[in-house]
Amino acid sequence: MTTFHKLSDFSTTSEEFTKAAITTPVQIKVLTELKVVFKDTTETSKYVATAVLSDNSCTMQCTIYSETLARQYFTRDNCLMISNYMISERDGKTALIVNSKSVAFIIPNFVIKDDLVQQAAMHLADLLVTPIAEAILLPKKRRISIEGKVTKVEPPCKVKNNTLALKKIHMRDTAGKMQVSLWKEKADLPVSKGDFIVLNSEQTTIFKSKAVLSSTTETTIKKSTTADLQIVQSDGSEDEEEFQNGTIVGVQNITVYDSCPTPKCRNKKLDPSNKCPSCKQSFTADAIIKGYVCNLCVLKVDGNLQTMTMFTKVLLALFSYDKCSYSSKEFTAAILKKLPLQFQYKANNDIIVEIK
């Protein structure tokens, strides 16, 4: 007759269980959604995911190093029999380790006690959130989630030849602060200064020798209910950037396009059928407004010339237009009449995002 281990047998990580793979199987139920912690897209194809398991004796974290096994078996509510696993310690708690040599089978469903299901939800929350003070010390390409107060939201912009949307936010928890870059469609995620949020599935990276987080295709934002965050305050360092002085001395080119008239879409370019990819509305010709992307030559106070980009809202504000329907040639001529033009600005990656 086959014997089985209970998860409670591993309540302490004794040498008996940590020296080698354990062949005596466990019968468990997956109580949470699988969370990918790390996925390397290089040739090494490293993969780490986590879930919480139970067998009615206790709940336990499971760390899975095989993407194949993770995707095939570790779906929420699946009941499994696992062998050739290991036991280790993760963040001070016992964890069951599954790798490519582990064996898993789907078995008939069984019911887990309610108190253990609730315990699993709390267990997973503890696993997912990384304190910011720890996050800034992690190596690149580590998939994590953080929780904190949003202390600054920078104006959205486009980078890489105006092809990628980007919104930068700054977050703090009780022990640290960090910048987060929201890319592509994630730049449209709703977030405001002062929000208390949990930011799930971000990837660590380095920008200008500084640890930052970058969104992934799985990034989500949800409201935080952690009471300790209510005491978090900005020290003002997120707002240290000051306006720079410059003089616009030339125009490189102006691109004109049909854009969405809905304010929240921020002059999103319409598709050939006059449909906005953001709000999904279609517009008649008389409702469409013009959008502009302009590359300008700016003489900086250090004497250097720099090509900088302006988008519709900032461009119209700088030249005192509420709106306009100029063609590229007409707008270029109108701007040239006002040059040279001294102004003060804030820039992000050579994009002018604010003026005064």
Q: Could you list some keywords that capture this structure?
A:
356 residues; mainly beta; 5-stranded mixed barrel; 6 helices; NA-bd_OB-fold
Explain the overall architecture.
- Strands 1, 2, 3, 4, 5, 6, 7 and 8 form an 8-stranded mixed β-sheet that branches. Strands 9-11-12-14-13 form a 5-stranded mixed beta barrel. It has a 5-stranded antiparallel β-sheet with strand order 17-16-15-18-19, sandwiched between helices.
- The chain is mainly beta.
- The protein contains 6 helices and 19 strands.
- The longest helix is centred in the middle third of the chain and has 15 residues.
In short:
InterPro entries: NA-bd_OB-fold. The protein contains six helices and 19 strands.
How are the SSEs placed, and which strands pair?
Elements: H1 15-18, E1 26-30, E2 35-39, E3 47-54, E4 59-64, H2 67-73, E5 79-83, E6 86-90, E7 93-98, E8 103-106, H3 114-128, H4 132-135, E9 143-153, E10 157-159, E11 164-172, E12 177-183, E13 196-207, E14 210-223, E15 244-259, E16 289-300, E17 305-311, H5 312-318, H6 328-336, E18 341-348, E19 351-355
Parallel strand pairs: 4-7, 12-14
Antiparallel strand pairs: 1-3, 1-5, 2-3, 3-4, 5-8, 6-7, 9-11, 9-13, 10-11, 11-12, 13-14, 15-16, 15-18, 16-17, 18-19
InterPro entries: NA-bd_OB-fold
Indicate the structural class: mainly beta
**Tally of DSSP β-strands:** 19
Average pLDDT confidence is: 84
Q: Tell me what portion of residues adopts beta-strand conformation.
A: 35-45%
Quote the distance from N terminus to C terminus. Answer: 80 Å
Number of contiguous helices: 6
- Strand and helix order: HEEEEHEEEEHHEEEEEEEEEHHEE
Residues in helices, as a percent range: 10-25%
- What form results from the Cα inertia axes? elongated
